[in-house]
Design a protein that fits this description.
By secondary structure, the chain is an all-beta fold. Helix content is about 0%, strand content about 65%. The chain has a domain of about 100 residues: lipopolysaccharide transport protein A fold, CATH 2.60.450.
């Protein structure tokens, strides 16, 4: 399927996330769909994020999205927004936890932080940087 958009709902019929992309491929004998140029909007109330990458593998059976190459996760509806950049990220769609073991570059306004690995819980807004953390935080006006 080319140039698509779909919405995933929770068990109560509430939208959890939308995803659109350039191309979606799914094979009959697989639980995985491959997406080129995915753009995902996480829709947790008051904590919206836009996540994009070059590629994604969606696995409906285990409720995950594996993003690869040029992953950008950006906070929506807030200024200055937090932006997280990395080369790979796994999103657990049911728990809304995003994680990676790769290097992450986090910016917010003039603040910059680097880490090897992170775990972000979108429901609790808790961000854990797992190792080799460095950077600086500057208050914003």
């Amino acid at each position: 399927m080319n140039e698509f958009q779909m919405t995933t709902m929770d068990e109560y019929g509430k939208p959890v996330y939308t995803i659109d992309g350039k191309r979606l491929e799914r094979y009959n004998d697989s639980d995985t769909s491959r997406v080129e140029r995915p753009v995902i909007h996480m829709l947790e109330s008051g904590k919206q994020w836009k996540v994009s990458a070059d590629y994604a593998l969606l696995n409906d059976k285990i409720s995950t999205i594996q993003l690869t190459e040029n992953v950008v996760m950006q906070q929506q509806n807030i200024e200055p927004a937090v932006t997280i950049r990395t080369q790979s990220m796994l999103i657990h769609t049911k728990t809304q936890v995003a994680e990676t073991d790769a290097q992450v570059d986090i910016t917010q306004g003039k603040s910059k932080i680097k880490s090897t690995g992170m775990i972000y819980n979108n429901i609790t807004s808790k961000l854990e940087l797992t190792s080799s953390v460095s950077g600086y935080y500057l208050p914003y006006d």
